[in-house]
Write a structure and sequence with these properties.
Helix content is 33%, strand content 28%. With 231 residues, the chain is α/β, with parallel strands linked by helices. It has a single domain (3-230), classed as P-loop containing nucleotide triphosphate hydrolases (Rossmann fold, 3-Layer(aba) Sandwich). The chain has a 6-stranded mixed β-sheet, sandwiched between helices. A 4-stranded antiparallel β-sheet has the order 2-1-4-5, with helices on one face. The protein starts with a helix and ends with a strand. 43% of the residues are buried. The structure holds adenosine-5'-diphosphate (ADP) and magnesium ion. Residues 13-229 form the ABC transporter domain.
Length: 231
């Protein structure tokens, strides 16, 4: 195992008075939140309460209409600044896996490294590491469609960690899986997060998942932090 996949050090994230409106709709109405380095925060709340919007703001896929996001001491987003996703050292995992069907598992996982110009030999070592960390060693040559849903989500997880990001963002990653797979993958994600030491923000509407994974659970309602439970 190379040091690269494991060397990720988490960033600390702080949100201050974060606002997001879409036209006349106010989705986030002043979010204040701290995610300490190396910890996992679960965002819970009903459908439509703004969880994915908050993740997009953290990712830099959306610029906030007000307030500020800091990664350590750096302002990455405000009403006048918005660092692009590639400047934020992120990995993301979505509900629908978002894998490229025409590419092998290994090529999917290698993609973020290719984008950073990392050479082929190093790429393939790091892809092997990431695949073995998610329990998919030896499956790099397969196409995603030849894998089960749970395995496909593990590929997405490998792709998210391969570049040793400082922040991992999860948007309901287990919602498409049946219960047994969900439980197993949830346990494995928890073990992986403690092993990597990466900071994570994990969106879910499943309280059990939040309790299994998170150091802090944040419940959103009406665009605000309704409740914050530290564990
Ligand atoms: N780009 C957008 N334009 C307009 N409305 C949006 C946009 N993105 C999200 N919304 C609205 O913001 C609200 C919160 O959405 P979202 O963050 O996806 O909620 P959640 O992930 O908690 O289900 C919803 O009412 C949604 O329709
Ligand atoms: Mg959502």
């Amino acid at each position: 195992m190379t040091s690269d996949t494991r060397a990720s050090q988490g960033v600390s994230v702080s949100l201050r008075a974060l606002h997001q409106t879409f036209g006349a709709t106010r989705v986030l109405d002043g979010i204040d939140l701290d995610v300490p380095a190396g910890t996992t925060t679960a965002l819970l709340g009903p459908s439509g309460c703004g969880k994915s919007t908050l993740l997009k703001l953290l990712a830099g896929l959306l610029a906030p209409t007000g307030g500020e996001i800091r990664f350590d001491d750096t302002v990455v987003a405000s009403d006048s600044i918005c660092h692009a996703p590639e400047r934020r050292s992120l990995g993301m995992v979505f509900q629908d896996y978002a894998l490229w069907p025409h590419m092998s598992v290994a090529a999917n996982v290698a993609f973020p490294l290719e984008m950073r110009g990392i050479k082929r030999a190093e790429r393939s070592d790091r892809v092997e590491d990431a695949l073995s960390l998610v329990g998919l060693a030896g499956l790099g040559a397969r196409r995603p469609q030849a894998l089960s849903g749970g395995q496909q989500q593990r590929v997405a997880l490998a792709r998210a960690i391969v570049s040793a990001p400082r922040l991992l963002l999860f948007d309901e990653p287990l919602s498409n899986l049946d219960r047994d797979l969900r439980t197993r993958l949830c346990t494995d994600i928890g073990a992986l997060l403690s092993r990597l030491g990466t900071t994570a923000v994990y969106v879910t509407h499943d309280r059990d998942e939040a309790e299994a994974l998170a150091d802090q659970i944040v419940i959103l309602a009406h665009g605000r932090v309704d409740k914050r439970i530290t564990r």
